[in-house]
Amino acid sequence: MDCVFCRMLAGAAPASFVHRDEHVAAFVDLRQAVDGHVLIVPNRHVETLYELDEDTAGRLMALAVRVARALAADGAPPGLNLWQSNGHAGGQEVPHVHLHVQPRRIGDGLMRVYPNGVPAPTPRETLDALAARIAACL
User: Fold this and answer.
1) Per the residue annotation, which of 37, 96, 98, 100 is the catalytic one?
2) 98 an active-site residue?
């Protein structure tokens, strides 16, 4: 088993679980840049979002919402991020699909979405063409 998340799910590597059921699990991230960072994973190995079936995707999101509410009840952070990364260019570090649920606080220094400032709006014609290309692939 090369996948650290699969080893954790099998009990072969340590994990601090928040939730486990027959389909999905949630555990506290090893690297707590901000207190309360939790990962949500499918129990079966799926490398990226592209291979994930819709039922499992729905279960992941439902658990992410439950964890977010638990984090709000525990410490009422003023914000929260939910993110998922795919591939090296997307910042994926573990090849097992996972959602990050991370409480956010003003000035915590994490994740600047626009490092060069908020971009100017894209022309509507460009947005419409992009929407059409994506819709055609659905």
Assistant:
1) 98
2) yes
